[in-house]
Structure formats: structure tokens, C-alpha cells
Amino acid sequence: MEVLLENLGVKPDDTKIDALTGSKMVNMNFYPTCPDPELTVGVGRHSDLGALTVLLQDGIGGLYVKVEEDIEDVAKKGEWVEIPPIDGALVINVGDTLQMLSNGKYKSAEHRVRTTSTKSRVSIPLFTMPKPTEKIEPLPQLAERDGGARFREVVFKDYMNNFFSNAHDGKKSLHFAQVNNH
Ligand SMILES: O=C(O)CCC(=O)C(=O)O
Ligand SMILES: [Fe+2]
């Protein structure tokens, strides 16, 4: 987190890093085999709500990430790409919080999970998130540099409530904090 923010020219102190990532949550997902994976939803398309998510990979696979439409110089825009399953590797997802903080420089990864017909799978992602009472808004240096904040200030608890009261539907969760003219 520190490195990612320093990359944008911002030097957060330890207290700030702790405020932004100090809350931890895990999901425990079980994906049974399905004879026809096309007929089932493993996890529907969504972005994670926190700052960064850490996910230990197995050799089975099934995690897909959607390549953003509005970034330059990448292949496969708008397509779903499977993350190659490398046993023991850590996959790190950017979550909505980091997108808001960075004023949109880092984009949260829209992802989904499919089951396979041959192997069941368990995944236990670790979400690092702000403390519930923390106020999240684009870092002032970045908003100033970009000529305006693309997200309004939200209390993280409210963002969470909004996130969990809606079904997974791509990156719509971010609309809650988006400033309309962007
Ligand atoms: O099972 C996975 O690979 C990812 C699960 C996931 O996206 C989640 O729990 O938020
Ligand atoms: Fe996720």
C-alpha cells in the first residue's frame, strides 16, 4: 500500500496506512464441481471493497479479471482474462478504496469466479480495509493535481453498508461515491 501510494508521489505515515488497511476480513469460498460450469455462477462479477485483497492461489484456477475498457495501450479491452493458476502464488487485487483514494489512478479489479467440472476448490481471500469510522476521499494532493476529486468523501462504514446491500453487479458499488461529472 505504501509503495503504491509513494508511486503516486504521496508519502503516507504509518498511522495513515494503518487507518486505511488496519481492518481485516476473510471470506471462505467453497466451489463444488459442476458437470457443466457454464450453468452455474461461482462468484458473480464484482470488485472488492477494501484497499488490497490477498489471495493464495492453488493449481485449480477459475478466477477471471475483466480488462478495463478505458485504459490505453492494453490488449483485450473489456475481455475476461483467466488468472493463470500458479500453486502458492499470491494474487493481489486493488479494491474500491484504493481507487477512491488514488482519485481513479488505480482501478479496482472487476473479477468473477467460475467452477470447474473436475475439481472442487476452496479460496480464502484476505481483505485489508479501512477502519469503519475512517473517512475515505481522494488524497488531496492527487485531487488537486487532477483538477478535482472524482469521488466524494464517504465514511467507510457507509460504503460497506452500501456494498453489502446490493447484489454483485460489476463495479456499480463505486457509483455510491462517484462525483457525477466524471
Ligand atoms: O475465489 C476466488 O478466487 C476469489 C473470491 C472473491 O472474489 C471474493 O471472495 O471476493
Ligand atoms: Fe472478490
Question: Would you mind describing this structure in some detail?
Answer:
It contains five helices and twelve strands. It is α+β, with helices and mostly antiparallel strands and 182 residues long. The protein has a single domain (24-176), classed as Jelly Rolls. The strands form four sheets. Strands 1-10-4-7 form a four-stranded antiparallel beta sheet. A four-stranded antiparallel beta sheet has the order 3-8-5-6, with no helix packed on it. A two-stranded antiparallel ribbon has the order 2-9. 26% of the residues are buried. Residues 46, 48, 111 line the site of fe (ii) ion. This is Fe2OG dioxygenase domain-containing protein. It comes from Xanthoceras sorbifolium. Keywords: Iron, Metal-binding. Residues 21-130 form the Fe2OG dioxygenase domain.
Q: What are the main properties of this structure?
A:
182 residues; alpha+beta; Jelly Rolls; 4-stranded antiparallel sheet; 23% strand; binds 2-oxoglutaric acid; binds fe (ii) ion; iron
